[in-house]
Amino acid sequence: LRERASLARLSLANMDQHEKAFQKQPKVALITTSKVNKNKARPGKAATRFHKSVGLGFKTPKEAIEGNYVDKKCPFTGDVSIRGRILTGLVHKAKMNRTIIVRRNYLHFVRKYQRYEKRHKNVAAHLSPCFRVREGDSVVIGQCRPLSKTVRFNVLKVIPAAGGKKAFAG
């Protein structure tokens, strides 16, 4: 019994607890009865942390594999599958908790004048704690099930901006 309690404390120490409710990954057993060597445990499956590949050629970030965070909406460690559209855009705002606004610029053709006009759409996307983004970075987002009232996309890849600060978009 004492071994179980010490194992539970060990696995609890590996997870970040920042919420009022207890945070744990649903696919990981906190207290195991078998004495399995942790070095021989398969990563992502029988280990103390669950992670998966989202497919479509996107690599699982190192922070998702080795990190301590618990995020049920993360495509790498949570229960969210990516399906549908894959979009790219610039990070417009990163002020919300685990959510960013991605600005997608495009050209719209006006037939009357035979000219193009600039337009844009803002898309809200869930940002997993395994990524570090700043305004101006380019991101690849993938469509998933609705995560909230406005969020239907998840960040899959971050391409840092060349400059340090956000550039004028015009």
Condensed summary:
With 170 residues, the protein is mainly beta. The protein has two helices and five strands, in the order H-H-E-E-E-E-E.
- Biggest β-sheet, characterized? 5 strands, mixed, barrel
| Global geometry | elongated
Low-confidence stretches: 4-13
Q: What's the average pLDDT? A: 82
Question: Which bin fits the share of residues in helices?
Answer: 10-25%
The number of helical segments is 2
Fraction in beta strands: 25-35%
Distance between the termini: 65 Å
Structural class: mainly beta
Q: Please trace the helix and strand order, writing H or E for each element.
A: HHEEEEE
Widest β-sheet, arrangement of strands:
1-2-3-5-4
Rg, alpha carbons = 20 Å
Q: How many strand units?
A: 5
